[in-house]
Write a structure and sequence with these properties.
Helices cover about 45% and strands about 15% of the residues. The chain has 2 domains: about 180 residues, Rossmann fold (3-Layer(aba) Sandwich); about 190 residues, 3-Layer(aba) Sandwich (Rossmann fold), CATH 3.40.50.2000.
Length: about 375
Amino acid sequence: MKRTLLVTIDFPPMFGGVANYWANLCRCMPSDSFVVLAQEYDNSLDFDIKQNYLIYRKNLISNNKWLWPKWLPLLYQTYKLIRSENIKKLVVGHVLPTGTVAYILKKLLRVPYLVSIHGLDIAIAQQNKRKKWLMRKVFSQAEKIITNSNYTKEQLLKLDCCVKDDVVVVYPCPNKTLGKGSEEFKQRVFQNNNLQNKKIILTVGRLVERKGHDKVIEAMPEILEKIPNAVYIIVGQGKQLSDLKTKAEEIQVKDKVLFFTDMMDNELPTFYELADVFIMPSRQLANGDVEGFGIVYLEANIYAKPAIAGKSGGAVEAVEHNLNGLLVDPLNINEISQAIVSVLENQTKAKELGERGRERVIEKFNWEKQAAELVKILS
């Protein structure tokens, strides 16, 4: 593989899907030929010293109100590293602004580049004419474009700004190092929330509109008619927290909807282990915000739990209907409730979906396999 530099704003210890995506791919790349330039954070060193590849940390976006554009430090630091580390190829984590930097440096230094996109960055880039023009320029000179799903690939091709052969899919994968939950923590959650003899419905994810927590809450009255001992557990933080709590109170299911907002990564396994079914009926919003893939469905599958997803965006690639879970209309409350009830009432069906899901993740969605695809692209 040619000596490659990944340039990204999103990288651990920052949280988020893009940061997690690149951290796991980097872990599996050839460490002698893969270098990272990432944004510096107060606790960056805690992450960096545990890695087997070279990471440079710099302040890439300026806070100086007199400096424009704000990404000039990003351009300068990338230029320096290309020269000092003898970089032969660039990978950039977003269309803008890292893609703009790659475009400029290809003109200056003749270093080819690849662009990684995750869905929302395309929607953001189309919000004004300047960004849309820049996006097309970046794609026009890219050697390859890496997408996180076939859905994102198809959305990109609809814009008619690149050719099909230039777009490749490198899937995100679940973090199999989540491991087993703490028995002590599990018992504490179990007892403090009176979960004995309960059927547990679980969602893990940011509390934002497109994830569909609100629709599951709206479905709870129908679910409780059939499954009186059902409880809906929501794990995550976000701006919708207050609205979701209000909704649960208004439709009188407040005591059946439990929120866990300050969970650490090592506490997540407990919730997957406790769950009977996982659901996240994501939907596309009017502004184009959509689930590019949906790694949490596969995380649930690792614990042999069936996953229910909305027929929207890349979620239909993470969940195959009647294989590792079920697909529902994310706006149809009755369809959501029926899907949940059908799994909770049929333990055999739930077990089959969960076991097939686990096998599918092991076979297809593992970081080593996806990193090998990236190495091929970069060679």
